[in-house]
TrEMBL record:
InterPro entries: Glyas_Bleomycin-R_OHBP_Dase, Glyas_Fos-R_dOase_dom, VOC_core. This is VOC domain-containing protein. It comes from the Bacteria. It comes from Amycolatopsis cihanbeyliensis. Residues 8-150 form the VOC domain. Pfam families: Glyoxalase.
Length: 155
């Protein structure tokens, strides 16, 4: 058995300049829940992430995300043509959820309760030849998520 056979994605790490804005948005948009938080960090973490002040783990379904607050965040977006994790895709279990999440995104954006790094609006929901449906949205930090519905039999 290859060593990678037991490998699973454990969590994503998202750094932000305003943890309260980010946390509230993630809880509401993804319908996530807060799992735990930390405000003391190892010497290694402080060396890797200077200025880290707080880390909050949230979860939604099987997805875990670590949101962390960085003092001295540049508030800059990375070069979209550079070496970046371009997007993260999470799947949902029904096509209706895609429409609901698109509406939810717009509702939260228009509520004025959150500050967004990008004014980019959600895409339309696209359907590929195999019936996979996808929606692309940005989080409050300008990071791109794909939200997909995969019909049975697709992978
Ligand atoms: Fe994708």
């Amino acid at each position: 058995m290859p060593r990678s056979a037991g490998m699973k994605l454990h969590h994503l790490g998202v750094q932000t300049t305003d943890i309260d804005n980010c946390l509230e948005w993630y809880l509401e948009f993804f319908g996530a829940q807060k799992e735990w938080q930390l405000d003391h960090f190892s010497e290694l973490t402080q060396r890797r992430l200077p200025g880290i002040r707080r880390l909050v783990e949230i979860s939604a379904g099987d997805v875990r995300i670590h949101l962390f607050d960085r003092a001295g965040h540049s508030e800059m977006q990375p070069d979209p043509n550079g070496f970046i994790f371009q997007h993260v895709c999470v799947s949902v279990s029904s096509p209706e959820e895609l429409g609901e999440m698109r509406s939810k995104w717009i509702e939260l954006y228009e509520s004025g309760r959150f500050s967004f790094a990008s004014t980019e609006q959600p895409t339309e929901i696209v359907v590929d030849d195999e019936g996979v449906q996808s929606l692309y949205v940005y989080d409050v930090n300008g990071l791109e998520y794909e939200i997909s519905y995969m019909p049975e039999g697709t992978r």
